[in-house]
Amino acid sequence: MKKPILTALALTLGLALAQSVTLNGAGATFPYPLYAKYFDVYHELTGVRVNYQSIGSGGGIRQLFSGTVHFGASDAPLSDAKLAEFEKKFGTPAIHVPTALGAVVPTYYLPGVTQPIRFSGSVLADIFLGKIKKWNDPALAALNPGVKLPPLPITVVRRSDGSGTTYIWTEYLAKVSPEWKAKVGVGKSVAWPTGLGGKGNEGVAGLVRQTPGAIGYNELIYALQNQIAYGAVQNRAGKFVLANLASVRAAADLADFPADTRVSITDTPAPEGYPIASFTWILVHRDLDKNRAVKSAAEAQALAALLDWIVHDGQRYNEALHYAALPEVAVRATEANLNSLRYRGQPVLPK
Amino acid sequence: MRSRIYGKLGDRAFTALLVVLGLAVMLVAVLLAWELASGGAEAFRTFGFWGFASGSAWNAVAEQFGAWPFLLGTLITSAVALALAFLPALAAAIAIAEYAPRWLAEVVAYLIDLLAALPSVVYGLWGIFVLVPLVRDRIEQPLFLWSAEHAPALMGVLGPPTGIGMLSAVLVLALMIVPYASSLARDAIHMVPRDQREAMYALGATRWEVVRRVVLPYARGGIFAGVVLALARAIGETMAVTMLIGNSGQLPYSVFGPAATMASLIANEFAEAEGGLQLSSLLAVGFLLLLLSLAVNLIADFILRRMSVGEGRK
Question: Are A91 and A204 in contact (CB under 8 A)?
Answer without folding.
Answer: no
